[in-house]
Amino acid sequence: MPVQLTFAERPRRDGQPRQKAGRRPGPRPNVRHRVRPTHKYWNPVHVTLRAVKGLPSFRRETLYKAFERTFRRTRREDFRIVEFSVQDNHVHLLVEADDNDALARGMKSFSVRANRLFNAALGRGRGRVWGDRYHRRDLTDARQVRHALVYCLANYKKHQRVDHGRPRIDPCSSARWFQGWTAIRTADDGPRPTPTARTVLLARAWQKHGFIHPGEVPRLAG
Fold this sequence. Notes:
It is a single chain. By secondary structure, the protein is α+β, with helices and mostly antiparallel strands. The chain has a single domain, classed as Alpha-Beta Plaits, CATH 3.30.70.1290. It has helices at residues 61-73, 100-122, 142-153, 155-160, 200-203; strands spanning 45-50, 79-86, 90-97, 135-138. A hairpin with a 3-residue loop joins strand 2 (79-86) and strand 3. The longest helix is centred in the middle third of the chain and has 23 residues, at 100-122. The termini are far apart. The mean pLDDT is 86.
């Protein structure tokens, strides 16, 4: 009986085996559909969600307000978005969840609600907002958490190439409510849109590596 070969197993015309067969990934490949690692409730998670191409900037005032309403309404006992930043075509989140199921349900709740409120703010009845499944990175020690906080709250500096001067606090993020700056802001920005951290790593353990100066710029998390 003939045997069906996979594309990678098919020999070349010259009889030699195929090397590195298959489609090459692009400059920013999609998140692969692999089984996600087991989430431990004591580890915060850095989540990135990217938009489909062609949408206006998420940082437009009316659209950012839609995201802020989403953060305020996404409240679950087993899932918390603690910190966030909204960039032109993606969002960064620092979240806590009780387990894998809680993380999956919480992210689905957030993404569906954000999709609906974004479309309403844009004045369209329906339409896709997210271009891919979310990228997740579990943070397992205090230094990783501190790096992730800087990366999330100051992410606009990375994209806008801001390394000094004003503004130091990104208005399209939870930086206005963050209490880990070297100098606490006294401006009244209203009630915090997200709950406070409950995990030891995100609530206080990262502080042993130093509070964050408003002038810090993101670095690759590690």
